[in-house]
Please model this.
Amino acid sequence: MHQVKAKKALGQHFLTDLSIAQRIADTLSDYVGTPVLEIGPGMGVLTQFLMQSGHDLKVVELDGESVEYLQGTYPQLSENIIADDFLKLDLAEIYGDGKFCIIGNYPYNISSQIFFKVLDYKDQVVCCSGMLQREVAQRLAAGPGSKTYGILSVLLQAWYDIEYLFTVDENVFNPPPKVKSGVIRMVRNQVTDLGCNERLFKTVVKTSFGQRRKMLRGSLKGMFPKDCPILQDPFFTKRPEQLSVAEFIELTNTIEQANKQ
Model:
C-alpha cells in the first residue's frame, strides 16, 4: 500500500516512532477486555500495538484515504473501522450503555472538542489516554494556581484523575508539527454525583474563566440577584484559577441558594 498523504485541513501529523506508539498503547494495559475506541488511526501506527495487546478494538477515521489504507493493511480490522467524524458519532449506538476506553493521537485542531465529548459519556468512558499538543495536555492535568488551569481542567478533573505522562518531540512525526506533544491518561474517579446542579456548575466554571483576569465578584455578578450582599465576602476577591474543583462546587451551590432566596 502507498503511504497516506497528511492533510493539513484534518490536522494530520503521522507518528513515525514505533517505541512511542508502543508506550501510548501501553497506557491502556490495565484495560484489556474493556472495549477500546481509537480516534484518528491514520496509517495505524498505534492501532497495530493495540491489536497486538489483544484489545477489543474499533477505530474511527474521517479521512477516506486512511480508511482505505487501514482496510488494505489490517484486513482483520475491516469490520471495526468506522468511517466517520468522531465529533458527530452517537457512541451509545456503538456501545449501548456499556463501559469503554478512548485512545488516540488526537488531531490538535479539535482536541478540546474531543474531550468535551468524552465528558458527555463520562459514565461510560472509564479511561481516556493519548497524545495531543503539549500545552493542551498540560492544561488538562494542571492544578489550581497554575496559569494553564482552565475550563477543561476543572470540568474533567471533577470526574477524572488526570496524569501528564511524557513529552514527545516534533521530529518523530511526518510532517513535523510546529509544537511539542504531550501524552496523558485520564482514569474515571469514584464520583457519581457532584453534590450540586451539574448544568449550573458548567456555567459557573465557563463564566468565571471567560473573564479570568477579573475577580469572581466582577465576572459572576450577573449570576446573583441585584445588589446581593454575599458578593462582599472576601472569597469573591479570588480569581478563577485559584479555585479547586471542590470550591467551584461550593460556589455553584452558593449561587443556587442566593437565587432561591
Observations:
- The chain has a mean pLDDT of 94.
